[in-house]
């Protein structure tokens, strides 16, 4: 019955001709990332600001460089083998494990009758397994190299386009034009020019991330920007899209596409008209921030959600949401997938801790690391401290690492300080009762790279935030083999599969889980569990998640034509109907289309550049 209801929903979404397409489950040429591609990874932050939108896009770009290099080696190896009459060299090669297919493949009328829950695609484009970056474990599909899949079936135009692809990967990051902004965000690492910051980024990628080859090959492009303290965010000064030369535009990965497009200049072209394929990766739950922390949040949140949906639809062919906690952006054009990984440094620390025979008897330190913002759950942490003390008779000690705009206020809340009333602490209301807060056993340790907390001193990471989308520091702590105590929440669903993750549903559950962590050593991860956290696995999840099926592309073209026709009819009608012309011509949402690489108008006017 569930399969029937799923098919019924799909039938309402797709036209009958689209459901009956023979190649409907295959990826479009533009969205197929199994081959060598040129990439631009555009983000809203840059090192040394160690925020998720600064670190993760950099590592994604670096692993795409590594992936392109491996695909080039495979293509060269296959071509040389064919020339030398060695077509049979892949007879014993490991087969692919999963095909790349769109969600619509599950409800396609061409599904296998033997297993209706799984739809084997007729496409030769298959997903690499997680060892795809090792030439010693060559991945093939029916004896074909992955970089050469279906090349004989390409049209003349597609073949020419593929030959023009060089495999360049460019990271596009902000340059803070005001020195005061750089002082505020970067602390002691203040750069006089973009060249100095580029050197810093490459050195970090080479030394800290252990990727010297990728650090040399990666291209870095800066765009002018300003930091807005009120929003704790960086915004571009001008149009980023126009700064990118047209000769290498192929695939664009927009990290936070809504953020990048809030302040677009009037008349700017969409990203989908400049690039063959645009993938938006949603990092931040801005709707939740607006609802819980903005003035008149109950009004601001739905308004912001509407704006987000408009700008994302206008600039993305496919949207990847890191967790299910996020709003809907593009109905039928988005997928929930964790496409982030963690550095090898953290995985190595997990292996080290697993090999330690004598565990950390006695000291099991508790810590948190992240931005010092109230929105990160510090008010919840205060409540948990209070409840823990009520149940156990004492507060639990915790070291807090990080910095942020709410740092001083958070410090006063935890350890006391001079308030406006002049007393030695601050009066807070917890669970319905106000009291004079006593200084808590909390140490504020300043900003630090999470990898520096490797070792046996800390064994427990506590993160009570409910506004995260997918917390990178939580994944890093899990990889290092530490206990992770986090709330049961859609943003944490990915972490539930790991044995050292302790989830709680309420304050009582938190007390129980923290006691468990304080009294026991965390279990070690299996090799398979650790691999799920790696950037190799995350890169392959990007390849799969970015796919737009031929069926979805046909549906997008149909919707675009229908909306363009509606607007045209109303425009013509307005010429002969004065009453309707006075009301104006309504415009519709911006829908990206593969057919024409154009989009209809949007009801949202661009916001002014600040």
Average predicted local confidence, pLDDT:
78
> Into which percent range does the helicity of residues fall?
25-40%
Subunit organisation of the chains? single chain
β-strand number: 21
Continuous helix count:
21
Largest beta sheet: strand ordering: 9-8-7-1-10-11-12-13
Radius of gyration: 26 Å
Helix/strand structural class: alpha/beta
Q: Roughly how many Å apart are the termini? A: 53 Å
As a percent range, the share of strand residues is 5-15%
Bulk shape: globular
- Which ranges are low-confidence, i.e. pLDDT below 50, for 5 or more consecutive residues? 1-11, 87-152, 417-436, 580-591, 593-610
Major beta-sheet overview = 8 strands, mixed
Description:
- With 610 residues, the chain is an alpha/beta fold.
- The protein is built from 21 helices and 21 strands.
- The strands form five sheets. The chain has an eight-stranded mixed sheet. Strands 18-15-14-19-20-21 form a six-stranded parallel sheet, with helices on both faces. It has a three-stranded mixed sheet with strand order 2-5-6.
- Helix 16 links the parallel strand 19 and strand 20.
- Helix 11 packs antiparallel against helix 12 (297-315), helix 13 (344-355) runs parallel beside helix 16 (472-479) and helix 14 (378-392) packs across helix 17.
- The longest helix has 32 residues, at 52-83.
- The radius of gyration is 26 Å and the shape is globular.
């Amino acid at each position: 019955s569930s399969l029937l209801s799923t098919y019924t929903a799909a039938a309402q979404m797709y036209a009958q001709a689209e459901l009956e397409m023979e190649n409907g489950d295959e990826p479009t040429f533009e969205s197929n990332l199994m081959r060598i591609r040129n990439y631009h990874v555009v983000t809203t932050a840059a090192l040394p600001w160690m925020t998720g939108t600064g670190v993760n896009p950099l590592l994604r770009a670096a692993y795409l460089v590594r992936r392109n290099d491996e695909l080039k080696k495979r293509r060269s190896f296959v071509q040389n083998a064919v020339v030398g009459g060695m077509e049979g060299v892949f007879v014993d090669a490991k087969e692919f494990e999963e095909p790349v297919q769109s969600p619509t493949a599950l409800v396609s009328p061409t599904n296998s009758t033997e297993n209706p829950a799984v739809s084997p695609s007729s496409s030769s484009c298959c997903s690499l397994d997680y060892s795809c970056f090792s030439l010693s474990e060559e991945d093939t599909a029916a004896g074909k190299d992955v970089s050469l899949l279906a090349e004989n079936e390409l049209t003349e135009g597609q073949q020419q386009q593929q030959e023009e692809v060089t495999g360049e990967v460019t990271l596009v990051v902000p340059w803070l034009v005001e020195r005061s902004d750089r002082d505020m965000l970067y602390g002691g690492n203040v750069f006089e020019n973009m060249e100095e910051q580029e050197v810093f980024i490459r050195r970090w990628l080479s030394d800290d991330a252990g990727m010297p080859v990728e650090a040399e090959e990666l291209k870095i492009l800066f765009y002018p920007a300003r930091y807005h303290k009120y929003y704790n965010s960086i915004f571009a000064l001008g149009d980023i899209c126009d700064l990118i030369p047209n000769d290498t535009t192929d695939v664009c990965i927009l990290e936070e596409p809504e953020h990048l497009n809030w302040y677009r200049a009037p008349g700017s072209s969409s990203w989908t008209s400049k690039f063959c394929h645009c993938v938006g990766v949603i990092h931040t739950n801005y709707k939740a921030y607006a609802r819980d922390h903005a003035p008149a949040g109950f009004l601001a949140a739905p308004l912001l959600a509407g704006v987000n949906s408009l700008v994302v639809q206008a600039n993305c062919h496919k949207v990847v949401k890191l967790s299910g906690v996020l709003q809907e952006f593009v109905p039928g054009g988005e997928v929930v997938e964790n496409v982030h990984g963690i550095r090898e440094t953290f995985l190595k620390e997990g292996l080290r801790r697993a090999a330690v025979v004598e565990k950390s008897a006695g000291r099991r330190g508790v810590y948190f690391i992240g931005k010092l913002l109230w929105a990160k759950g510090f008010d919840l942490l205060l409540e948990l401290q209070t409840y823990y003390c009520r149940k156990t008779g004492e507060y639990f000690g915790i070291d807090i690492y990080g910095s942020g705009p709410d740092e001083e206020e958070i410090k006063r809340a935890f350890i006391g300080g001079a308030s406006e009333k002049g007393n030695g602490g601050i009066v807070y209301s917890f669970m319905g009762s106000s009291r004079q807060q006593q200084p808590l056993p909390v140490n504020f340790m300043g900003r630090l790279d999470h990898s520096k907390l490797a070792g046996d001193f800390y064994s427990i990471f506590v993160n009570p935030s409910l506004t995260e989308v997918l917390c990178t520091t939580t994944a890093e702590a899990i990889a290092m083999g530490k206990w992770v105590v986090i709330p049961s929440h859609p943003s944490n669903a990915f972490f539930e599969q790991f044995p050292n993750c302790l989830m709680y549903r309420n304050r009582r559950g938190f007390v129980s889980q923290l006691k468990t962590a304080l009294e026991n050593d965390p279990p070690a991860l299996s090799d398979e569990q650790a691999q799920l956290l790696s950037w190799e696995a995350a890169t392959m999840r990007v390849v799969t998640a970015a796919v737009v099926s031929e069926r979805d592309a046909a549906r997008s073209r149909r919707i675009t034509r229908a909306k363009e026709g509606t607007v045209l009819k109303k425009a013509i009608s307005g010429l002969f109907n004065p009453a309707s012309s006075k009301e104006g011509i309504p415009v519709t949402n911006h829908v990206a289309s593969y057919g024409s690489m154009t989009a209809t108008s949007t009801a949202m006017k661009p916001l002014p550049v600040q």
